[in-house]
Amino acid sequence: MTVVNIKDRVKNNKLNLSGLNLTEIPTKEIAPLKVSHLDLSNNKITSTDNVFSSLPSLVKLDLSNNQIKSVAGDIGSLQKLAYLSLANNKIKDLPKGLSKLKQLKHLNLSNNPLKPELIEAVGPSQNNAQCQSAAANAIQYLKGDTKKQDDKQNKKKDKKNSKASPNGVQNDKSKNKTKTKKKPAGFVSKVFGFFGMLISYTLLFTVLMGLSLYALSYYDKKAYGNVKAKLLPIWGSVTSNLDPKVASKVNYYLLQAGTSFDNVVHISIEASIKSYNWVKTNPTVQQYAKNVQDSWKSFWDSVFKKTKST
């Protein structure tokens, strides 16, 4: 179809042929003009065959609101094309030639009966941001499903590694390289952690001793009385060696707790529980507590070995 006065419609290398009820693209008349912007929207164009190779200078092409069912494969010849609108057509698929458009930044495919896998790959293209992502996604999709290719390559590598390594165990050298080294704790945190651990373990030992005595009071009251009679004088001698002010405070708290040894045990249990909760929330203390636990274990092992040998 011949369009009258096409030259008169060119302004600044831009040609507007929108809304002229064109049924085909007048390639012969447009090609000599070497326009960079071509608007063919709102027409009745059904085919794009043998068009794009004659218009290599196009930077922007608008073919929206037509009746195009398929895009010609020679669209890959538009190496300068940055903007392409194919909205409101009857397009189901895209040609692989579109993947050659390295300058394509904007692609509008909205309101087309695209096949499901293409919709999933490209996504919606309604606004400017979505059109930009659609361009990149379409090119990637047409080049091939890179994710599937990567998965296949990874599976091949895994098979090779499993064959190369004994018992199918893979080497994780790359993973070990990415592991970050823990920074050593500072001197203050070490001292704080050590004393915190020491206090918590002392209280824990007191709790265990109190629990054993408390259990003994139920099963053997006579033995419990003997132990209690021996421990109380020791406690008295310990407090007598303390500073008078400290000893008075200790004895005051013991009196507040009650004269019963059972109440003192209960208070020590509550204090140790609080100390345990504090240790549990402090990673530094936990680390040093583990170190002390290991040292105590090795110490007692050596003691018991000596006693057995003697």
From TrEMBL:
SMART domains hit by this protein: LRR_SD22, LRR_TYP
Top-level division of the source organism's lineage: Eukaryota
Coiled coil, from the record: none
PROSITE patterns: LRR (PS51450)
InterPro entries hit by this protein: Leu-rich_rpt, Leu-rich_rpt_typical-subtyp, LRR_dom_sf, LRR_domain-containing
Region (Disordered): 144-181
Stretches with biased composition (Basic and acidic residues): 144-153
Pfam families: LRR_1 (PF00560), LRR_8 (PF13855)
Residue ranges of the TM segments: 191-216
Protein name as it appears in the record: Leucine-rich repeat-containing protein 59
Annotated organism of origin: Aphis glycines
